[in-house]
Structures are given as C-alpha cells and as structure tokens.
Amino acid sequence: MPIMLALAVCLTAVLGVTPVFAQDSIVRLKEEIIDLQNRGDLGFRNLVLCSEVVSFGRYAPYPSTQVEAGSSVHFYYEPENLYTERSEGLYILEFTQDLLLESTDGTVLIDAPELLEFRYESASPVLDVFAHNTLNLQGLEAGRYVLIMVMHDKLGDKEARTEYPFEIVE
Questions:
Q1: Domain 41-169, classified CATH 2.40.30.10, yes or no
Q2: What tens digit of pLDDT does each residue of 99-149 get?
Q3: Sequence-ordered list of residues with C-beta below 8 angstroms from that of 146, at least 6 positions apart, any chain
C-alpha cells in the first residue's frame, strides 16, 4: 500500500493528476462551503467604482470616488452568500438587482428595478460570481450622488441593500 500512495503522489507531482481520494475531499469541501453560504447573510463584497471590468476580481478601480462629468463608470461587486439550490444533479444560482441613483437631497434620478437578472445552472458547484453595472453620467450635473443597489436572492428568499456615494466633477 505505501508503494501505491507514493506512486499516486509522484503522478500528481509529475502529471498534475489529482488522485481520486483528493477529488472526493474537494467535492465534500465544496458542498460544505455551499451549506455555509446558504446559511450566511446575503451581501455585497468588494463593491468598487471602476473605469473597466474585465472578469472576476479583475477591474480598473478609480483612485477616488470622484469621476468626470459625461463619462461612463462601472460598479463591480461580488454577491456574497448567494443561495445555491441543488436539483437533479444541478447547482442553481438566481438573483436580480435593482439600481437607484439619488442626489444628496434624496431626489431619485434613476429607478431601475430588476436592472440585472442572473440565473446560472451548472453540473458543478459555483462558489464565486461577480456582477457589474454601467452608469452613463451624461446629462448629470457636477455634484454628489448616491448609487443604491438592492439584490434579491430568488432561491434563498433574501435581500441585501448597499449604498455607494460618489461625486461628479467637471
């Protein structure tokens, strides 16, 4: 038996092959992570004002919360603790996100319910996802604004809200 284990370790090191017993452990850990996320509070993680969004964790953040008038900006975030439904061998995630833009006096300038709709089905667990919103600032005067996002986890029946203050400058 020690020879078989040594052979498995050598194959792993040389070929990059993961032994079956390690795969089983990985699957169990992913299932435990899903259980923890399903019990956790829904939220927004890593909300960042960006000039560009490339992919998960890859974006070009602005150095401050000040942006030029007339530009387009992106708001990157990672939904935290989305509920994962397991059904007929599939892992399913589903959420929507509302967007509101308010001036500092509370005037609603943009009200976009369910601006973002996300549903994903996969044969393997999905532990991390990202989303982003693009906001065209043309027509908005210089001043302070608050972006409000509300995420609705359709499968976990949860809701999370966040606010992001920023300033448009000339």
A1: no
A2: 999 999 999 999 999 999 999 999 999 999 999 999 999 999 999 999 999
A3: 101, 102, 103, 104, 163, 164, 165, 166
Q: Are strands 143-153 and 108-122 parallel, antiparallel or unpaired?
A: unpaired
| Six-digit token string for 107 | 């005037």
Global pTM reads: 0.84
Torsion of CA 122, 117, 44, 55, to 10 degrees: 60
Q: Could you list the beta-strand ranges (E) of 15-157.
A: 43-55, 58-61, 66-68, 72-80, 85-87, 90-103, 108-122, 131-136, 143-153
Q: Where are the domains of the chain?
A: 1-39, 41-169
- Please name the helix (run of DSSP H) or strand (run of DSSP E) that holds residue 160, with its range, or none: strand 158-169
